[in-house]
Request: fold
Amino acid sequence: MKKNKLIICLAATAFLGSSCGKDFLNKVPQDQISPATFWKTEADAKAANIGCYSSLWDVTTEVLPYLDVLTPNAFNNYPWEGWKNISLSLQTPSDMGSMGTLYNGAYSGISACNIFLANIDRVTMDDAARDVMKGEAHFLRAYYYSLLTNYWGGVVVLLDEPSLDQINAKKSTRAEVYAQVEKDLQASIPLLPVTAEDKGRVTKGAAWGLLTRVYLYQEKWQACADAAEEVMKLGYELFPSYRGLFLEANENNSEVIFDVQFLQPRYPTSWDIYLGIYDPLNAPGWSSIEPTQDLVNAYEMKDGTPYDPNDAVLNPKNPNNENRDPRLDQTIFRRGQKYNGVPYPVDADGWPGVYTGYSYKKYTAYDTTTNLGDAIGGTGLSQINGIIIRYADILLMYAEAKNELSGAVSEVYEAINAVRARPSVDMPPIPAGLGKEQMRQRIRHERRIEFAGEGLYYSDIRRWKIAETELNKTLVLNGSQMRGATEKRVFRKEKDYLMPFPQNEIDNAPNMKDQQNPGYK
Reply:
């Protein structure tokens, strides 16, 4: 079991964080200790610094595994979990599901960072340690704002300690939010270490990595490539086992640049339950998030040629060829595999699984040969870390930026082929001689496959401006409880590129009444 200091401190200083139920206008935690008696010792500084990290739980645990449900990669059958409605364009300012948790959690984290940065210089302590803490706070504030602007566009930017005057703050533009994110990250880089003393803390690589993503999302191609090169100098490596990347035994490995540390009992997740199959013989799961046939069809054959479902035996109960990209079976359970040491469930009529016919392996403790039985149990008992930035993402972001700048030059091939050549994957190199548009499509394909189930594809589709095509698909569901059913996804380009601001924000903040995102008024 993990016992790093960061998680232990998180549990011990949870009073400095804010719960996900608090809204953006209620910035002062009711259970926070008095500033008059705080900010005296280095121990106070450490406690407040940990408070900046605590909202990572809010913006990750009920969000990261579900984001693929908003894409053709995954299916959710339970409207009450708050994600199915978004995939059908039914979200409203009063009902955003767990995206509301992300919104509130991000602002709670920003509040903690603002309090920390406003007061840290009052503490008598070692200057080098103070600088590292400042760097962490600048990074975390940047991360929280990067989430907000990614999903909501322009948002209110707050940089000072909470006060009642902030109720009158006006929304900044998306460009202004990104400018603040860049400023915070650039401020953090010289202050952060290359290697953190405690696992889970922010490093120089994390700051350069997030800056790479921020530049990518703004199509600042040269800046993106330059930032990626800075990460590539720091010694990160692809972890040999693609499946092993997402197992607790291999956490904080050579590929992980920034992740959210989870640990029972204060900061666990329920990912094994959400992703586990709803079948008592296999795992105590809910089948909340299931991979789709659309995703399975996207995996190439092992020789690098596209998979053509029309070449398969036309049998909806078993529509798969073998000899596929090895990442398929390291990401997904399917018919013909073992699940938790027993055959993947197939009903008496030959239909596999529950809703789609597939289950996620990634981000679960369940595996092909391991029989966990009831080891996971109920909710809140998982603790596999949530990876936010890993080295494969840096390589593919670098490849995308270089291709947009110069076409399919050698550096683009080297980066994408390195990801494909991971020992447990060993896919053939991308064919030589591709044009810029051809390479663009190969990079987009590679990102979908490499990061399936990691929550990045929803942002990718939106920034590529292809959401109105990709998110209006009809998904085929071939699970035992949805035999041959379909779900027609809905994405309205006039509004769904952004989420609505919560209704309580619109009602309570005078300057927000006319600033709701388009399509939600």
In short: Residues 127-152 form the longest helix (26 residues).
